[in-house]
Structures are given as C-alpha cells and as structure tokens.
Write a structure and sequence with these properties.
Helix content: under 10%
Structural class: mainly beta
Low-confidence stretches: none
Length: about 120
C-alpha cells in the first residue's frame, strides 16, 4: 500500500502563489503516476495535473496549464504542485493520488488540503 499526505494549503489573494506537497510512504517503489485533483463545494472532483514517476512527464488540465507546475523529488518520495496566478475559481480541496504499476486507476488518495483564493 501507499500512504499519501498533502500539505501546503491555505488562504491566498488572487494573483498569489502557493505550493502544495504530497509525501508518499509505504510501497513507493510501486508508484507509476502521481496526480493532483481538486473538488470545490457543490462540484465534482476534477483532474488538475499528473506526473509520471520514473521520467517526470507531465499532463495538465486546460484550466491550469501555464499557471500550475507539477514536479517530483524521487529521493524524498514527494510530489509538488506549484500554483501561480491563482484565481478565486481555484478555490477547492486539493487531493493527491497515486497509480501503482499495473493498475489502471488511482488506487490511493491523500486526505486533501484546502486552498482558498480570495478576490
């Protein structure tokens, strides 16, 4: 199993920046992908970004491309989400999740961290 713990959320003004972290533990050798998702009140959870663990290839949702950057530190088993030029519509609970080798879905999820962007 893989355990994921997010941190770094908070309150920021529009136009500001935040960096979220997601620390993985347990069977980290089995991680294939790490993803970031978010869920705003009354809305469905949506994909934000993901990164392939072995080579760092990244993907982004259109809504965040050019503003957010996902990266990882394999030595620390940690993935980051650098969020710049934040907008009020970025307000949500942000979750990290992992896909393990051989799985076609996100198997493990963190508890989430709140990001609030004030206008």
């Amino acid at each position: 199993q893989v355990q994921l713990v997010e941190s770094g959320g908070g309150l920021v003004q529009a136009g500001g920046s935040l960096t979220l972290s997601c620390a993985a533990s347990g069977q980290t050798f089995s991680i294939y992908l790490m993803g970031w998702f978010r869920q705003a009140p009354g809305r469905e959870r949506e994909f934000v970004a993901r990164i392939r663990w072995n080579d760092g290839i990244t993907w982004y949702a259109d809504s965040v491309r050019g503003r957010f950057t996902v990266s990882r530190d394999n030595a620390k088993n940690t993935v980051y989400l650098q969020m710049n030029r934040l907008k009020p519509e970025d307000t949500a609970v942000y979750y990290c999740a992992s896909v393990v080798v051989g799985s076609g879905k996100y198997d493990y999820w963190g508890q989430g961290t709140q990001v609030t962007v004030s206008s």
